[in-house]
Amino acid sequence: MNKPEPKPMELALRQAEAAAGRGEVPVGAVVVDGKTGRLLAAAGNRVEERADPTAHAEMLAIREAAQTQGSARLDGIDLYVTLEPCAMCAQAMTLARIRRLYFGAYDPKSGGVEHGARVFTHATCHHKPEVIGGLDETRAAALLKDFFKDRR
């Protein structure tokens, strides 16, 4: 009997765990086709590894999905990420025309969707994805707490 494919947030959490294993802040993201559920991209943070402040999981996954699709516009595409995206990543989602954003833990300090800049609420935001927060929030938050506890 075939084992069922993991759900997108489970894949994102696995990417976050892998990021933590590399010494990165444990954030993972996956991009899927909203109609078929086909996985287009998966990534974890690589900021330290690449010495690149833009190498957030969301940015890497969006870039990979755009290349896979051959288009900068990802209409009908959903993004799953373990932490509320920052303002930079939220803006990239508007430019990519992400259909739906699912995220795990809320980020009152650096979030850009429900907190902070609230990118999608501005009149100048040309595209506003549907947002569903708190998906597997407890597990996503625990990854982050454990990571930072070990470093303090």
List keywords for this structure.
single chain; 152 residues; alpha/beta; five-stranded mixed β-sheet; 5 helices; 5 strands
Per DSSP, what share of the residues sits in E-state strands of 2 or more residues? 15-25%
State the helical fraction. 25-40%
- Count all strands and give the number: 5
Tell me the series of helices and strands, N- to C-terminal: HEEHHEHEEH
How far the N terminus sits from the C terminus, by CA atoms, comes to 45 Å
Give the integer mean of the pLDDT values.
Answer: 95
SSE blueprint:
Elements: H1 8-21, E1 28-33, E2 39-44, H2 47-50, H3 57-69, E3 77-83, H4 87-96, E4 100-105, E5 130-132, H5 137-151
Parallel strand pairs: 3-4, 4-5
Antiparallel strand pairs: 1-2, 1-3
Helix pairs in contact: 1-5, 3-4
